[in-house]
Amino acid sequence: MIDHLGFSVSDYERAKAFYAKALAPLGYSLIMEVTAEQTGHDPAAGFGADGKPDFWIGGEGAMNKPVHVAIAAKDRATVDAFYKAAIAAGGRDNGPPGIRPHYHPNYYGAFVRDPDGHNIEAVCHAPE
C-alpha cells in the first residue's frame, strides 16, 4: 500500500496554485507545507483529503520525464469536475472524461497535463 508520493516541479508556486484548484473537486486540499529552511533544501507542499497529505510536490526543479498519477474519484461527475477545474487552472487536455474500455468496461477517466507536463488523472471504476 502506498502511503504517499511526491515529485518535483519546475515552478513551485505555480504548481501549488494549479494543484489547489485542480484537485479540489476530488476533495483534496493543501494539508501541509514545509519550507526550505525546514527541509534543508527545497519547499514541499502536501495535498490530501481528511487531513492526510499523500500527494506531494517539491521545488527541486523540473524532472527529465513526466510522471503519471491517478486519483480515485467517487463518481463520474467528480471526474468531470476535476477535468474542468484542472483545465481552468491552466492544465492541458490529455484525454477528456470518458469510458476507457481497453482498461475495463467501467473505467471512466480524464487526463490533464499539469504545467510541467505531468499526466494527472481522475478515475472512477464504478458503473454509471
TrEMBL record:
Organism superkingdom: Bacteria
Domain VOC positions: 1-125
Pfam families: Glyoxalase
Protein name: VOC domain-containing protein
Species per Swiss-Prot/TrEMBL record: Bradyrhizobium diazoefficiens SEMIA 5080
Taxonomic lineage from the root: Bacteria, Pseudomonadati, Pseudomonadota, Alphaproteobacteria, Hyphomicrobiales
